[in-house]
Amino acid sequence: MPRMTREESQAQTREKLIGVAQMLFARDGYAATSLERIADEAGYSKGAVYSNFDGKEALFRDVLDAHGKTSLATILAALHDAHTLDDAIERLARWSDKQSRTGNWPSLIVEYARHAKPASAFRKAQEKVLRAQWRALGERLLALTSASAGTTLSPETVGALVFELTYAPAMSFVSQPTSGDLLRVALQGVFGASAAPGPASKRTKR
């Protein structure tokens, strides 16, 4: 097996650190997860963390980016063969119901915002990451409907609606309505879609 180049080795280290950080942040929260713990769990020195990231906030930003890209890829895969807006909304609602109950990302992001108080440079970088994800999803949804020609909403706004309703903190513990229920109402209102409430709206209470 050919030996990895320095760049390949660093990329592998960075990827592993992000993966371990994502697990620890999600499990233990932002404040309780130190760079020392991340480095130790990943099998590296703290210096390896600082050679790849400017600090804890920068690492968290990349964790948030990785999580968002995974979520976006899952959504786009689910929408790949959706030929109607109604079908797309129903698939999104089901994804949202499942995602809102997975892990503690909503509370983690709230905790991060409260404790980190990131500087303006970090906020701008994080905003850029989120807007790119929102835009990609919004463009996919707008492409499914001729109603998009009459809407004044940007792709970013449409995508943000989906992500933010899904990851709203209350949606992780409130039984009814579910995030999927809210998405159906919101997206049907935005596009004037005729999708009927699907199975998710009739689920039993948690």
TrEMBL record:
Which superkingdom? Bacteria
Residue intervals annotated as DNA-binding region are 34-53
Q: What InterPro entries does the database record attribute to this sequence?
A: Homeodomain-like_sf (IPR009057), HTH-type_TetR-like_transc_reg (IPR050109), HTH_TetR (IPR001647)
Q: Which UniProt keywords apply?
A: DNA-binding, Transcription, Transcription regulation
User: Kinase among the record's keywords?
Assistant: no
One Pfam family of this protein, by short name?
A: TetR_N
Q: Residues in domain HTH tetR-type? A: 11-71
Put simply, this protein is called TetR family transcriptional regulator
